[in-house]
Each structure stands twice: as structure tokens, then as C-alpha cells.
Specification:
Layout: H1 9-21, H2 27-43, H3 49-62, H4 65-68
């Protein structure tokens, strides 16, 4: 994911969403996911805080109904 996109939260959210669900995220989904990434990054410390926050987000997407029930 990091190799495929720029490291901006919105770009990471969009790419992860497309990979997991097969569709583009809505503006509301991007907004909520970006807020989640930012809040998670604050919870971690150190140089890898952004990567750890991204891992949390990816786990969240894979556990979501959007991933489980593709149309």
C-alpha cells in the first residue's frame, strides 16, 4: 500500500478501500477514515507511528461489512 500511493492519509484510505471493497470510498468514508488514521497516529509514538496507524486501519477495513459482503 505504501509503495503504491503517496503517503497522504486520503490517498492511503482511497487505495486501501478500493483493494478491500472493489469500489471508491465515499467522501464521508474518506473523512472518517482519515480522522481514524490521525487519531491512531497520535496514540503511537516513534518513527513508525504512521505505519502502525495504517496497519490498524487496514485491520478495520478487513473486518468491516463492506469487505465481508462484496456485491
Amino acid at each position: 500500500l505504501l509503495a503504491e500511493t503517496e503517503r497522504s492519509p486520503a490517498a492511503l484510505v482511497q487505495r486501501a478501500w478500493v483493494i478491500a471493497t472493489g469500489r471508491e470510498p465515499t467522501a464521508a468514508e474518506v473523512s472518517l477514515a482519515t480522522e481514524f488514521l490521525n487519531s491512531q497516529r497520535i496514540q503511537y509514538s516513534g518513527a513508525d507511528a504512521s505505519e502502525m496507524a495504517l496497519a490498524d486501519f487496514c485491520q478495520m477495513v478487513l473486518a468491516s461489512n463492506a469487505f465481508l459482503y462484496l456485491e
